[in-house]
Amino acid sequence: MLTTLAVQNYRSLRHLVLPLSGLTLVTGANGSGKSSLYRALRLLADASRNGAVAALAREGGLQSTLWAGPEAAGPRGTVRTRPVGLRLGFAGDDFGYALDLGLPIPANTEFNLDPEFKRECLWTGSVLKPSTLLADRHNGTLRARDDDGAWGPPRKIRLTDSMLIESASPEVLMVRERIRSWRFYDQFRTDANAPARASRVGTRTPVLDHDGADLAAALQTIRETGDAEALDTAIADAFPGAGVAIANHDTRFGLRFHQRGLLRPLDAAELSDGTLRYLLWVAALLTPRPPELLVLNEPETSLHPNLLVPLAALITTAARRIQLIVVTHALPLVRAIEAVAGPRAATLTLVKDLSETTLEGQGRLDEPSWHWPNR
Questions:
Q1: 18 Cβ partners below 8 Å, 6+ apart?
Q2: Contact 212, 189 (CB under 8 A)
Q3: Alpha-carbon span 138 to 131, nearest angstrom
Q4: Hey, which of 162, 277, 340, 360 has its CA 20 to 30 A from 87?
Q5: Are 133 and 122 in contact (CB under 8 A)?
């Protein structure tokens, strides 16, 4: 389980070190930095697929994503004295990882805005120390420890490639696969042309696709190989007397939503946006193949207030076997999860102070222990 998330110089997140639990609720007013935190987590996950550079390009490049305020409080903070850098990292009880992305040294190329990995570190335990380093990348040089704990020979690595891709160290490969198992869901489409409304060829689907196109197959997979009782409970809690069945027409799967008072079931194209979105969350949260980390971004979108309590129960049920981070601005959902989960849920409230995102009530001495690797 991740216990610490650290971000530096990403949009409004100039310096943020957050404690994480098995079920972490991140809330705050609009513009407080919740979306930036969600994007920072996704960027960390992209590094495990060597996609951090491309992800930053889609956001306008490294310069567009960097903290735009002063380095420090006071008039001297307006003069930059440190190298430009975006830092992201996490730690758990067993491993920690951090990366530092910066601008390249100008060269004869059209790609002078592509960020480079200035430093990457992987270590054992929750805090970075020289004695706990397992793999260390400094600019274009990578070192990793051998099985006996001694440092192996240095090797060259491309400045735009993550060591998570280039290193064959068993520890690096293990952490890479763990990060790759992280799963993100961000506001499913529910419009008339949404992928989840169309029937499609069904195959066993232990993991719901990011766009929900395989919803029917995912629900049927839960019923056959997952927790069918939790599936029925989640639907009954939200829609008393209702049930979901899957129709199979020549291998094409379609939803059939049976509701009390109706003479025929509704298919996915007829469902309201809120009903369809809730079913998508059911499929995502009751996955038979749980990830290391599941991150939900504003799951309350388009849901009627009456569905927030069933959603809270569904999230709490999933958190018994998955580490969950829920990013939301809906206080009723936060309160409902807190009521169901009790002390298992940790609520983090983000606030803005002079355009900088901070954690409400957290002073520097209250932060989890964290050390960034130097360049």
A1: 4, 5, 6, 24, 37, 348, 359, 368
A2: yes
A3: 17
A4: 360
A5: yes
**Would you list the domain boundaries of the chain?**
2-182+351-366, 189-289
d(CA 352, CA 356): 5
How far apart CA 175 and CA 122 sit, in angstroms, is 9
Which tokens is 50 given?
Answer: 């060597």
pLDDT digits (tens, 9 = 90+) for 124-147: 999 999 999 999 999 999 999 988
User: Per-residue pLDDT averaged across 184-200, rounded?
Assistant: 94
For residue range 81-123, what is the model confidence (pLDDT) as tens digits?
677 789 999 999 899 999 999 988 777 777 777 889 999 999 9
Is the distance from CB of 42 to CB of 7 less than 8 angstroms? Answer: no
Q: Can you give the pLDDT at residue 20?
A: 97
Q: How far is it, in rounded angstroms, from Cα 73 to Cα 351?
A: 18
Give 206-230 as a DSSP string.
SS--TT-TTHHHHHHHHHHHS-HHH
Closest CA to 218 of 121, 153, 283, 123: 283
Mean pLDDT of all residues in 348-354: 94
Mean pLDDT for the stretch of residues 290-311? 95
d(CA 222, CA 96): 33
What pTM did the predictor assign?
0.93
Residue 210 has pLDDT above 90, yes or no: yes
Cα dihedral 255, 256, 259, 265, rounded to 10, equals: 140
